[in-house]
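A quick aside before the break. I want you to see a complete sequence-to-structure record at least once, exactly as it would be stored in a machine-readable document. Don't worry about memorizing anything.
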Amino acid sequence: MASYELEFKKSVAKDLRSIPKKDVARILQRIEALRDDPRGEGCVKLSAQERYRVRQGVYRIVYEIREKELIVMVVHRSAVYKSS
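That is the input. The structure line, written in tokens, reads:
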């Protein structure tokens, strides 16, 4: 299976700075795994949108799949459904 190319929303760098480093490492590992299997275990399709999410601790990795590209956002679980 081919790998997807990752594209991060501009806000991701800022969001990651506010997250503890140990959590950032786990989030980045999870994002890297999505590259090979974006619809794998733990993936949930967000019903009202063409987006998916996976849990990583108290954070959610929200992403869109476009052909061979993943558009990635990282948000705290309390804001996942408010985020665009």
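Two observations worth writing down. The radius of gyration is 12 Å. The domain at 5-79 is CATH 3.30.2310.20 (YaeB-like fold). We'll return to this after the break.
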